[in-house]
Write a structure and sequence with these properties.
This protein is mostly helical. It contains 20 helices and no strands. Helix 1 packs antiparallel against helix 2, helix 1 runs antiparallel to helix 7 and helix 3 packs across helix 5.
Length: 372
């Protein structure tokens, strides 16, 4: 297991070296491939990273045992409540003593390939990869393993919204539901493309809801939200996730994240009907309403992750005035502080300390203590 200091060092090296490799890759694409290779290896070779890692390991081990005991896939489907993609992928590695390592490794490589495809399509490797790591999108995917697949497929499918290819978009979203049913909420986005809303109006609503949340306004309406969120997944019914959001609107993580989101909305100089801006706005609003409620945060995760594409557009597609350059530098410095102090320092999503599959804990199938 890495020490906390070495974990800080590792994550900061990834943050700076991978985008730098992509920058050098403008002349030699080998450097770009090397950057994504680093992301894939660090992701695939992780062990016991993520708050839900032990749960995934135990669940996948159980599926493998059923398969090795001659249970049919139909028998397992009858008792297994998760998405079918987990079951089908586990079936390929049921022979292994550590099927969950293969499972997480394959998903990590698959996600990295999709990320490469997305950033290649928009030609934003350097800044896109920086935002992917800096905003903790990568690390959150290490915890939300199933949803990370759905997220990367969604980011890949954005091209089909732009090209108005409904058939391919539906195929992508249907595939993503094999790993997380929450992606069903993404179907209507194809038809949101033509909606025209002023950026000033989006910004006004975002700031208003942020102040309403911080002032405690959502605490008074949370019971109504619970009725909706329980319908999202009966599996959360009765758990503390339903009530978690009511007490987190004043936490540093929430406030700093909202300030980052609103700053990007304010800086983005795109036209009124731009899909990226509208999708991102949906993420900002949902996150602002959710606080720490896991159910709404998971839905917001899809939309807010569009920032991977949105931020590079701010830098590359439009002429930025000097005052905007200053603001961009300030929010990057602020986000870097959050990255180290709040995310890594606060063990966000169980990311600290980093550990690899070559550790003794992995060989012995020992997991760190989790207080939940």
């Amino acid at each position: 297991m890495y020490s906390v200091f070495s974990t800080y060092l590792l994550y900061n090296l990834i943050l700076f070296i991978c985008p730098l490799l992509c920058y050098f890759g403008k002349k030699n694409k080998v450097f770009v491939y090397l950057a994504y290779f680093v992301i894939a290896i660090v992701s695939a070779f992780r062990y016991d990273i993520g708050a839900d890692y032990e749960t995934y390991a135990e669940g996948i081990d159980q599926i493998a045992q059923w398969l090795n005991n001659d249970y049919s896939l139909l028998d397992i489907v009858a008792v297994y409540e998760k998405e079918p993609g987990i079951l089908l992928l586990t079936a390929f590695f049921a022979w292994s003593e550590y099927p969950y390592l293969w499972f997480i490794g394959v998903i990590s490589i698959f996600n990295t390939v999709l990320l490469y495809k997305v950033l290649s399509y928009y030609r934003i490797h350097t800044w896109g990869l920086l935002i992917y790591v800096l905003t903790f999108t990568m690390f959150q995917g290490w915890d939300w393993v199933r949803q990370s697949v759905a997220l990367h497929v969604f980011l890949f499918s954005l091209r089909y919204i732009e090209s108005r290819n409904l058939r391919y978009y539906i195929c992508c979203i249907l595939f993503s539901t094999l790993f997380h049913y929450s992606s069903l909420c993404l179907f209507p986005l194809y038809f949101v493309y033509c909606i025209k809303i002023s950026k000033r109006l989006l910004l006004f609503f975002s700031v208003g809801i942020f102040f309403f949340a911080v002032s405690g306004g959502f605490n008074n309406v949370y019971r109504l939200l619970e009725l909706v969120m329980v319908l999202y997944s009966e599996g959360y019914d009765g758990s503390d996730h339903i009530y978690a959001g009511a007490n987190t609107y004043q936490t540093p993580t929430y406030i700093f994240t909202m300030l980052w989101y609103i700053s990007l909305l304010a800086l983005y100089p795109q036209k009124e009907n731009n899909q990226m801006l509208l999708f991102y706005f949906l993420g900002v609003i949902l996150y602002a309403m959710a606080g720490g409620n896991l159910l709404l945060v998971r839905i917001a995760y899809y939309f807010s992750s569009v920032q991977i594409v949105l931020f590079p557009f701010i830098l590359h597609e439009y002429k930025i005035k000097s005052i905007q350059n200053t603001l961009i530098i300030l929010i990057l410095i602020g986000q870097f502080a959050v990255f180290n102090r709040v995310y890594i320092g606060g063990n966000f999503r169980g990311c600290t300390p980093y550990e690899t599959i070559f550790s003794k804990n992995c060989i012995d199938k020992q997991f760190r203590y989790r207080d939940y």
